[in-house]
Amino acid sequence: MPIRNAADYRAIVWVAAAVLLLIAQYSNPSWIVFLCPISCYLGIACGTIAHNHNHRPTFSRRRWNNGFGHVLTIFYGYPTLMWVPTHNLNHHKFANRPGDATATWRYTNKHNIGVALTYPFVSGYFQSFPIKEYIQRVKLRKPNLYSSIRFQYAFWLGTYVGMGVLAALIYHRQQTGLGLYVWFFALILPAICSSTTIMFFNFVQHVHTDAYSDKDHSRNFTGWWFNYLFFNNGYHTAHHENPGLHWSELPEAHAAISDSIDPRLNQPNLIWFLLRQYVLSLAFPKLGTRQIGSVPSVEVPSAEVPSAEVPSAEVPSAEVPSAEVHNAEVHQRISVGERIPAVSATEASHAP
Questions:
Q1: pLDDT tens digits for 161-199?
Q2: Distance CA 44, CA 268 (A)
Q3: Is the separation of the CB atoms in 235 and 251 below 8 Å?
Q4: Which positions ≥6 away from 123 have C-beta within 8 Å?
Q5: What is the structure's pLDDT at 73?
Q6: What is the spatial distance between Cα 349 and Cα 28, in angstroms, rounded to a whole number?
Q7: What is the chain's alpha carbon radius of gyration, rounded to the nearest angstrom?
Q8: Coil, strand or helix: which one is 229?
Q9: Which of 98, 147, 278, 315 is most buried by its number of CB atoms within 10 A?
Q10: Which sign does the torsion angle of CA 90, 200, 8, 156 carry?
């Protein structure tokens, strides 16, 4: 197996487990009540794996990366190639400042359960615009990549329709609606949980942070259990500082900068943070988050803001492209068929 980093064997095991649980639930619907919650977790984990795969492709061969991306698409709930326009080229460029399609403050800068629960719908709607623009540009300039995007959309929708038909064919004589039950709870619900929870993670990692700060632009969740289950997704500041860094190296990168981050943005336990923010703060408002620094929707003078052409995460030298742009280019090169060479440890900070 042409894997680039040994840590990704665990990611492959997680994805294989998601596939096996889907097969198990289709084989015996009575297991769904027990296995569906695990599938929902694995779906969310596949979302973080898709995010990591987007920044740093898992394999050294194009076809392996394409195939892995297609499988992740099914469990993540949306074509993974669309991480490029919404995440690499938009979110990492603006990082919750004006222009970010995933901005947490679009209609209100309040942080409560209502805003948090509606955020995935708002964010998903506004992400559709860079997606459409990106596809149109690719259609005109990169026909091979455009074909890959069309294939992945067709594979995504075709798999969902095909699995629905399969469930209906297997169980239509056994019990009315059983096929629909199997299809929804074994496949569709975990995918919905994945895409919406990934957007929710983005919300809690950026709401009430200082979008114009060098280090306080993100909230981190540093607990070991969360980062084990979700492949170090909690180390968000370090990720924004160096998007091309492999996920397994993020704890060390976070440790190197943690002292320069506002302590309020280093949360040791996600569950306690959610309980404090969405339940206890209703009775004790002081337990809730407060805006740190400038309100992101209010633009600061241009002299204080990194150039729009250079992502805020890092300012590379003239010879080295930014990690975000480099990741996007690599992702496109993978899609059109170029082989991506292996990367040395010294090159990791600018590797895909």
A1: 999 999 999 998 898 899 999 999 999 999 999 999 999
A2: 20
A3: yes
A4: 101, 102, 199, 202, 203
A5: 98
A6: 46
A7: 20
A8: helix
A9: 278
A10: negative
Task: Give the Cα separation of 283 and 71 in Å (integer).
Answer: 44
- Is the pLDDT at 349 greater than 50? The verdict is no
The sign of the dihedral angle between the CA atoms of 230, 235, 238, 241 is positive
Q: What tokens appear for 217 in the block?
A: 């632009």
> 């060390």: which residue's tokens?
252
- Distance CA(111)–CA(302), nearest Å, equals 27
DSSP 267: E
- Tally of residues, the chain: 352
| For residue 317, pLDDT beyond 50 | no
| First vs last C-alpha separation in the chain | 19
Residue 67 neighbours by CB distance under 10 Å = 12
Q: How far apart, in whole angstroms, are the C-alpha atoms of residue 105 and residue 107?
A: 6
DSSP code at position 3: B
Spell out where 228-308 has E strands: 266-267
* Amino acid making up residue 287: L
**AA letter at 86:** T
CA distance 91 to 87: 5
Q: Is 271 exposed, middle or buried (0-12, 13-18, 19+ CB in 10 A)?
A: exposed
Q: Tokens 């740190």 map to which residue? A: 292
* Per-residue buried b or exposed e for 10-42, using 16+ beta carbons within 10 Å of the residue's own CB: ebbebbebbeebbeebbeebeebeebbeebbbb
Concatenating the DSSP letter of every residue in 169-218 gives HHHTTTSTTHHHHHHIIIIIHHHHHHHHHHHHHHHHHHTTS-TTSSSTTS
* CA 225/CA 61 separation, integer angstroms: 32
Q: How far apart are CA 126 and CA 229, in angstroms?
A: 29
